[in-house]
Design brief:
With 268 residues, the protein is of the alpha/beta class. The protein has a single domain, classed as Alpha-Beta Barrel (TIM Barrel). It contains ten helices and 13 strands. The chain has an eight-stranded parallel beta barrel, surrounded by eight helices. Strand 8 and strand 9 form a beta hairpin. Helix 1 packs parallel to helix 2 and helix 6 runs parallel beside helix 7. The mean pLDDT is 93.
Length: 268
């Protein structure tokens, strides 16, 4: 049985509205999250990801409300992330209707939350979201990746919406997250986010080959070919995109039809 590749629209949410920027900056309003998610549901999306990008305490109530509305109206899996720091945070989102929770900064600062979340809710509910940035300053112990232009770098985990470097090697962190019970990795490269030049293939391919759990490629879609590259060269199990869907440049159905013609197994 061939596992189908998933196409996942991502909705970055701030103050209850969907926003989109470039390299996590310059945010533009893109609409109501449940209306957009309903559109993607109709287009054949395999899942939808909601990310509370400011994840402030006052915004958490607004996000819970969005999840409840979405869970009532949609018939596809919902992954929710942003500001998850405790088991209670996870439980509140899962109770509101989320199928999976995506843990980023909270998991880096307190890796035990991944372990405990997987034990309490099951691995299938826990997504380790990893934001990375290229670092050209070589250091001992880091996993060196050779780039297409022949340069060499390692990928550093960044937290707080990409604003704070951690010194943690991304490949090693992905493997630790898997060993702690994460059922999936959502990988976003800061270099490619919102730039529309394609996914960061070197790091996506490396992490996909180093872990046994599914990897979702995120950050950089500008045209249909980028999805193909993410699956074939990045070895991703799913590809996530935002602005190309939000602003009507392509539909989920367009992507799946294109991939099917190229021989990539998708759910039509």
């Amino acid at each position: 049985m061939v596992l189908t590749k998933r196409i996942i629209p991502c909705l970055d949410i701030k103050d209850g509205r969907v926003v989109k920027g470039t390299n996590f900056l310059g945010l533009k309003d893109a609409g109501d999250p449940v209306e957009l998610a309903s559109r993607y549901n109709a287009q054949g999306a395999d899942e939808v990801v909601f990310l509370d990008i400011t994840a402030s305490k006052e915004g958490r109530g607004a996000l819970i409300d969005v999840i409840r509305r979405a869970a009532d109206e949609l018939f596809l899996p919902l992954t929710v992330g942003g500001g998850i720091n405790t088991i209670d945070d996870m439980q509140n989102l899962l109770r509101a209707g989320a199928d999976k929770v995506s843990i980023n900064t909270g998991g880096v600062k307190n890796p035990d939350i991944i372990t405990k979340g997987a034990e309490k809710f099951g691995k299938q509910c826990i997504v380790a979201a990893i934001d990375v940035r290229r670092n050209n300053e070589m250091r001992e112990g880091a996993t060196v990746i050779e780039m297409p232009d022949g340069s060499r770098c390692w990928y550093e985990v960044v937290i707080y919406g990409g604003s704070k470097p951690t010194g943690i090697d991304a490949i090693q962190w992905a493997k630790e997250a898997e060993s702690r019970g994460a059922g999936e990795i959502l990988l976003t490269s800061m270099e490619t986010d919102g730039v529309k030049q394609g996914f960061d293939i070197p790091v996506t391919s490396m992490i996909s080959s180093e872990v046994k759990i599914p990897v979702i490629a995120s950050g950089g879609v500008g045209k249909l070919e980028h999805f193909y590259d993410g699956f074939v060269y990045g070895r991703a199990d799913a590809c996530l995109a935002a602005s190309v869907f939000h602003f009507g440049e392509m539909t989920v159905a367009d992507v799946k039809e294109y991939l099917a013609k190229k021989g990539v197994a998708v759910r039509l």
